[in-house]
């Protein structure tokens, strides 16, 4: 079974390219194309924002894509956090899953600050059961899978304009700039993760998102983050 074909569109080899270089190419593409996606709003895949009770303080919607679905080593490992049975072409396979360090703390805090949506290029047959195991506190208000992406120039793109919300309230974290090529100004880039258990990137990002959750204009702070 080719794990990346059902799970992610970023391989270890591709992850060697500096993230800043890939993000710069994404901005250049947007300028050349004049933006592929629309302006947002209207009815869409996520639906109207819930209000009342816990939801009352939310100003933005945060999309947690493929990096949130943990790494899957090509071979069985002894320290897997989850083992997911997945049926591919009539055959059951065991997918061994490693959680990125601090993902539980990060997801809990993001669920307190934002309306969170899992948006992944992974197939639902894999990503849905992983999300069930990962999201014990119910941070994900919606889940969108590969079927909700736009296949564009060989990549699965998360077109934020199709989601039914104003773009100035949408934030996407992604390890693949190709995934947000239509809306790079809404993105918080994050490095791909495979097996480095000393990684602290999720923990380091929490203060930034705490600031971002208080902003009326998300683009100002996002631009500062892109330039830092």
Q: Can you describe what's shown?
A:
The protein has 228 residues and is an alpha/beta fold. Helix content is 28%, strand content 18%. The protein contains six helices and nine strands; from the N terminus they run H-H-E-E-E-H-E-H-E-E-E-E-E-H-H. The strands form three sheets. The chain has a five-stranded parallel β-sheet. A hairpin with a 2-residue loop joins strand 6 and strand 7. Helix 3 packs parallel to helix 5. The longest helix is centred in the N-terminal third of the chain and has 15 residues. The radius of gyration is 17 Å and the shape is globular. About 3% of the residues have low confidence.
Question: Which helices and strands occur, and which strands form pairs?
Answer:
Layout: H1 3-7, H2 19-33, E1 61-64, E2 82-88, E3 91-97, H3 103-113, E4 115-119, H4 124-134, E5 140-144, E6 150-152, E7 155-157, E8 170-174, E9 187-189, H5 201-212, H6 218-227
Parallel strand pairs: 1-4, 1-8, 4-5, 8-9
Antiparallel strand pairs: 2-3, 6-7
β-strand number: 9
Query: What is the CATH class designation?
Result: Alpha Beta
The name of the CATH topology is: Rossmann fold
Largest sheet: 5 strands, parallel
Instruction: Output the strand order for the largest sheet.
Output: 5-4-1-8-9
Give the helix/strand class. alpha/beta
Radius of gyration of CA atoms, rounded to a whole number: 17 Å
Q: What share of residues are in beta strands? A: 15-25%
End-to-end distance, in Å?
40 Å
Second rung of CATH, namely the architecture: 3-Layer(aba) Sandwich
Shape: globular
Q: Mean pLDDT across all residues, rounded?
A: 79
Bin the helical content.
Answer: 25-40%
How many helices does DSSP assign?
A: 6
What is the number of domains? 1
Instruction: List unreliable stretches of 5+ residues.
Output: 50-56
Name the CATH superfamily assignment: HAD superfamily/HAD-like
């Amino acid at each position: 079974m080719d794990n990346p074909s059902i799970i992610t569109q970023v391989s270890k080899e591709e992850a060697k390219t500096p993230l800043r270089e890939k993000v710069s190419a994404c901005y250049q593409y947007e300028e050349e194309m004049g933006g592929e996606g629309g302006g947002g709003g209207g009815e869409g895949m996520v639906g109207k924002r819930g209000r009342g009770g816990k939801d009352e303080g939310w100003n933005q919607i945060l999309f947690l894509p493929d990096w949130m679905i943990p790494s899957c080593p090509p071979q069985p490992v002894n320290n897997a956090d989850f083992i997911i049975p997945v049926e591919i072409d009539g055959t059951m396979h065991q997918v061994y899953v490693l959680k990125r360090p601090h993902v539980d703390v990060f997801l809990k805090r993001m669920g307190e600050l934002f309306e969170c949506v899992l948006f992944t290029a992974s197939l639902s047959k894999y990503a849905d059961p992983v999300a069930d195991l990962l999201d014990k506190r119910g941070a994900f208000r919606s889940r969108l899978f590969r079927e909700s992406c736009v296949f564009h120039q060989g990549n699965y793109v998360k077109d934020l304009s199709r989601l039914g919300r104003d773009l100035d309230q949408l934030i996407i974290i992604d390890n693949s700039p190709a995934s947000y090529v239509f809306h790079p100004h809404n993105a918080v880039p994050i490095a791909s993760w495979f097996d480095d258990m000393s990684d602290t990137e999720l923990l380091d990002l929490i203060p930034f998102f705490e600031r971002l959750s208080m902003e009326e204009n998300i683009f100002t702070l996002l631009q500062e983050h892109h330039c830092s």
